[in-house]
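Replying to the earlier thread about multi-chain prediction with a worked example.

Input:
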Amino acid sequence: MATKFEPKILGFLCNWCSYAGADLAGVSRYQYPANLRIVRVMCSGRVEPSLILEMFIQGADGILVGGCHFGDCHYQTGNYFAEKRVKLTKKLLKRIGFEEERLRLEWISASEGERFAETIREFTKQIKEIGPSPVSGTTPNVDILKALFAAKNAVKDFRLKLLVSRELDLVMEGNVYNEKVPQEEIDTVLDAAINYELDRCSIIFEVRDEALSVDELAQRLELPPNRVLQHIVTLRDRGLVMLDRIDNDTPLYLAVEEGIK
Ligand code: FES
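Result:
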């Protein structure tokens, strides 16, 4: 008989609002499923995309990030940054073919115990409908697992971090010439940066243990060879990939050990 799927849901809740909301739900005896495991953080803005991706790698079926409503953050702008970070993480998840709906962001205040319980009921139902994570259990989908590792490394890239942390200022206040940058323009730059970093991290992942040629990498990653070559040049410049040997006039590349995190 098939066992009933009980999702593992992780909740990163900010100390000042959502965690207090969860507390109120408990004290008020509002019922919600026991699938949620809570991690208390000081502010939703502290939840890094790499942490969310690591939790998905570890087999979480769903992740909830809970923070204060806009204007109520104890640290004033933490929740604005949380929104940008969750948006970036969702873009990455979508790009690698992992259901972005498994990640949810909610603003729940300390007085919204009932809303907290309702959110958990609804999210648990949604995750049950989507089904178990493709990387959980005894036979994880290796391709998606690799892609999640690549995504986790991609979000550590300085350029992506800078873009996400500056996004708010550029849209709300403008650049050094006081020109406000349209959100669509930022999204285009962000999408391009995500694609580049994901490609590069996927290449590093493929050549961790095995030296490969540009053509072999292009086939495995389903990328045009000229694009792979461009990435290899950049990765060699950054000291993350090296020439391992030349086989029949074909250069084979290998990741530099320090470059693999
Ligand atoms: S303190 Fe709650 S979101 Fe910042």
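The first strand starts at residue 9 and ends at 14.

Feel free to reuse this layout for your own posts.
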